[in-house]
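Hi both,

Apologies for the delay on this - the queue was longer than expected. I finally got the adenosine-5'-triphosphate-bound model through. Below you'll find the protein sequence and the ligand SMILES exactly as submitted, and right after that the structure tokens for the full complex including the ligand.
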Amino acid sequence: MISLAGRDILHSWGKYVFTGIGLGLLIGVTLSMAGIYRGMVEDARALLNNSGADIWVVQRDTLGPYAEPSSLHDDVYRILQGLPGVAATGNVTYLTMQARRAGLDERVMVVGIDGFNSGHPGAPAYLLAGRGITRAHYEAVADIKTGFSLGDHVTIRRHEYLVVGLTQRMVSSGGDPMIFIPLKDAQEAQFLKDNDAILNDRARSAANPSLNRPGVPGLLDAIIASQSANHNVNAVLVKVADGWDSEVVAQDIRRWKRLQAYTRVQMEEILIAKLIATSAKQIGMFLVILAIVSAAIVSFIIYTMTLGKIREIAVLKLIGTRNRTIAGMILQESLGLGLVGFIVGKGAATLWAPYFPKFVLLESGDTLRGFVAVMLICALASIVAIRAALRVDPATAIGG
Amino acid sequence: MSDDAIRIEGLTKRYGSGDTAVDALKGVDMSVAPGEVVGLIGPSGSGKSTLLKCLGAVIEPTSGRMAIGGETIYDSAEGGWQSRDLHALRRDRIGFVFQAPYLIPFLDVVDNIALLPMLAGKSDAQARLRAQDLLLALDVAHRAKASVAQLSGGEQQRVAIARALANQPPVILADEPTAPLDSERALNVMRILEQMASQYRTAIIVVTHDEKIIPTFRRIYHIRDGKTYAEQGEGRKIYDKRENK
Ligand SMILES: Nc1ncnc2c1ncn2[C@@H]1O[C@H](COP(=O)(O)OP(=O)(O)OP(=O)(O)O)[C@@H](O)[C@H]1O
Ligand SMILES: [Mg+2]
């Protein structure tokens, strides 16, 4: 038995392919949306994995340091180091801001870290090129996605940094590439005021009689010094010693040090379930709408194609073709359209994924799920057309 | 006579009900022998198409009896249709030829014909062999691989006749098969139908208004107000004489 659907498709392949391409672009958008979500999750995971930490210690009652602001004194790490099960600690600050190089103005996450040998919590796990930071000031290691290259002078706030190393897949949970600088510089950058503000503050302190007491020499200087220095970090990253359960260590930190400590599992929960939950819902809603639109388009196309064949369907019925065969023909054409659309869509999504500014991850699982969904939608969409075809009266082929 | 290819007795058909009911057939009697071509003529609205639709098992008669090849297909006294599978009945026992060829545009010439044996369960190879034979008999074998859009009107009508013959049905129903053709082509189609009728022992009913072909029938059924009257075709002798000169 020849395939009626196959022959019909071959006969009007031009129309078919054009429609398939149109549908395919829509499917491509859908797959990309899923890829964007996966990319966000993947970025969040990369952020956690590449930080090299087992526990994140942050300000009490906050979901810091990524989901909420958190501030700790930069000497907290000393107390933590004394706890059993703690192998290493690292102070970190995170600050999303603009970094400038001649002609390039890039949104980056500036990360201040207090150690640069690999394995130090917070430091990039490996370098693509160059070396780690060795000087105490004004050197930087940048993620390749910043577009900066070795030897570049990058301006962050008022200081210039020399890019001495390049790393990869170090991004914030928002997908901004990271640039690592020494902790002291980062603390300064975070709280640094411009000269006018500093002068203004000094004048205010000097004019305040309770701070500038005539009988206490040196008080004003001490106050001004403490006002213009910053000794805070956003989090302390903790690496747990071999054989220790990070949850046990985290519990100790929570109980005895009155700090908030999150394990890797909890951090992932915070990032994925809280930080990107709204975006996920947003994308989910978009996927639902796209699915409905695709279904409407496919059913409309298949319905019009079927209406264009009413006469042939009446003749086919008259000469003894069963309803089942005719329904099968329409269903196959619909699925065929879905297949063409899916191939085009997958191709388009793969082609344009690298041009997205943030990471787009096309998972094979999503591709498979997408394929099943497209086929289901096409099958459902053919129902209207099949009903119309089954209502065709073979007597109309004979005419009046 | 049980060896009639078509036998119709007391067939009635009423469309609708109540005040708007139309009695399209009011007791039609008809019999056609195997290999015979009969004409069915009558004014517009006399019930010609209705009769073909009943015999073609696409609408259900109101009462009466119909038999094809000696086998009852419909009997109102026996509960109506005798077969539950009307698709198979149409596919295997009735061929249709229409005013327009109504070929399937997405199949090539040979598959337009081969489709019927395929639907009846024949293998593709067998079905195409059968189609090739018919194309040869109808003198369009050289167009077998063409798409139907590339055929002339006359060629298309011959392919349509080949399709009607594809499953070797005992009966062919033709509704105005010559209407769009000029008189030479129209007579040609009638000659082919006659030839096929005698070659394959097929009974053919040709509904027509066409003055040109009326003389070709040996027997004509007139239908008027839903009733049929048989008549020997007077024109036939003149036609035969002209054909043989
Ligand atoms: N589906 C229908 N519903 C109601 N009445 C119908 C229907 N089909 C046909 N009729 C009526 O039945 C009668 C016979 O119609 P039919 O189509 O059989 O005529 P016909 O002889 O084929 O006419 P023509 O030569 O114009 O094709 C007409 O009065 C017509 O109006
Ligand atoms: Mg009619």
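Main takeaway for now: Chain A is about 55% helix and 15% strand.

I'll put the files on the shared drive as well.

H.
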